[in-house]
From TrEMBL:
Organism whose genome encodes this protein: Pseudoprimorskyibacter insulae
Taxonomic placement: Bacteria, Pseudomonadati, Pseudomonadota, Alphaproteobacteria, Rhodobacterales
Alphabetical list of Gene3D superfamilies matching this protein: HUPs, Tyrosyl-Transfer RNA Synthetase
Keyword Phosphoprotein found: no
Similarity remark: Belongs to the class-I aminoacyl-tRNA synthetase family.
Protein name as catalogued: Tryptophan--tRNA ligase
Residues the record lists as binding ATP: Q9, P10, S11, G17, N18, G146, E147, D148, V186, K195, M196, S197, K198, S199
């Protein structure tokens, strides 16, 4: 049986990358009639310092982003991670299954910890073991993510395999990362070789889901490009990361292929293409940001949805966690 799980950190500044790489695709799964579980991973967020008030607001804002993007709480389970203690409990067991060397190889650890690893939190180092628990505490089979999370889902598979091997069971499934579409890696608007990221110090590098029409248009107008015009075929984007990024964003927002976009805009200059892209981005994002703002006026409604989602998630996780404790040999 297929079961989809994915998560997003409530660490602020939801970006167009999160929307195209994650939120929008989560909604597509829900509409396929498959069981879908989506989590706001607040326990991952605190692996780097979060102001408590800001964390609360960001969690509700992310929930609003999910719902405004089309997530239907009747069809999908939506909740925040700390409501289901099974994540932390299974995370501990996986801390004892995973090896230090596996964690050290994670590119996100290397990027986020920086040079001074002695000063990074222990939680940041162990993050992938908790992420494995997020997925496996539901026996999820499919994990839709952006390209940047592929390595972590592969590590989840390694943890499942090692657990099954060490305890001589066939208990945890090996989940598949699902990375598809034109925008699995949306890049910074200032540097086409860097991923668009919530935590980039430059606000001009990203489109935030809460940006208004003027801000979106201005950021796209100022986006870095090269002096050439748009090619009529995808090969013409080779070695042109900024051009490729803008075309990919257009294709993903318009829900057409890159070839289709280039058939229409090939030969145009960026001065002509950028306003087209800005109009499209505003048309797609502004109904979402308007709805997010409306939902944020009713935080108690958001909290009720998350509590309800937490109850449903716990009902799935608890028997799996109990079975895990039995396998490991915990007396209960
Ligand atoms: N630029 C991106 N393009 C496509 N997908 C992306 N995702 C993130 N950035 C892009 C996908 O969004 C989901 C949630 O990511 P996350 O918030 O859990 O963590 P992250 O990958 O670390 O995202 P950020 O925006 O880069 O946050 P910071 O700056 O805090 O590290 C994932 O499915 C991710 O692939």
């Amino acid at each position: 049986k297929q079961r989809v799980f994915s998560g997003i950190q409530p660490s602020g500044n939801l970006t167009l990358g999160n929307y195209l790489g994650a939120l929008k695709r989560f909604v597509d799964w829900q509409d396929n009639g498959i069981e879908t579980i989506y989590c706001m991973v607040d326990m991952h967020a605190i692996t780097v310092w979060q102001d408590p008030e800001a964390l609360r607001r960001q969690t509700r804002e992310l929930a609003a982003g999910f719902i405004a993007s089309g997530l239907d709480p009747q069809k999908s389970i939506l909740f925040n991670q700390s409501q289901v203690s099974g994540h932390a409990e299974l995370g501990w067991i996986f801390n004892c299954v995973a090896r230090m060397g596996w964690m050290q190889r994670m590119t996100q650890w290397k990027d986020k910890a920086g040079k001074n690893t002695q000063n990074a939190s222990l939680g940041l180092f162990a993050y992938p073991a908790l992420m494995a628990a997020d997925i496996l505490v539901y026996h999820a089979t499919h994990v839709p993510v952006g390209e940047d999370q592929k390595q972590h889902v592969e590590l989840t598979r390694d943890i499942a395999i090692k657990f099954n091997h060490d305890y001589k069971v066939d208990f945890f499934p090996t989940p598949e990362p699902v990375i598809e579409g034109a925008a699995t890696r949306v890049m910074s608007l200032r540097d086409g070789t860097k991923k668009m990221s919530k935590s980039d110090p430059s606000d001009a590098s990203r489109i935030n889901m809460t940006d208004d029409a003027d801000a979106i248009a201005q950021k796209i107008r100022k986006a870095k490009t090269d002096p050439d015009g748009l090619p009529s075929e995808a090969e013409g984007l080779e070695g042109r990361p900024e051009a490729r990024n803008l075309v990919n964003i257009y294709a993903a927002l318009a829900e057409v292929s890159v070839d289709d976009v280039l058939r229409d805009v090939g030969g145009k200059q960026f001065s002509e293409f950028k306003p087209m892209l800005a109009d499209l981005a505003v048309a797609k994002l502004s109904p979402i940001s308007t709805e997010m703002a409306r939902l944020m006026q009713a935080p108690e409604e958001i909290d009720a949805i998350l509590r309800n989602g937490g109850d449903k998630a716990r009902a799935i996780a608890e028997p799996i966690l109990k079975k895990t404790y039995d396998i490991v040999g915990m007396v209960r």
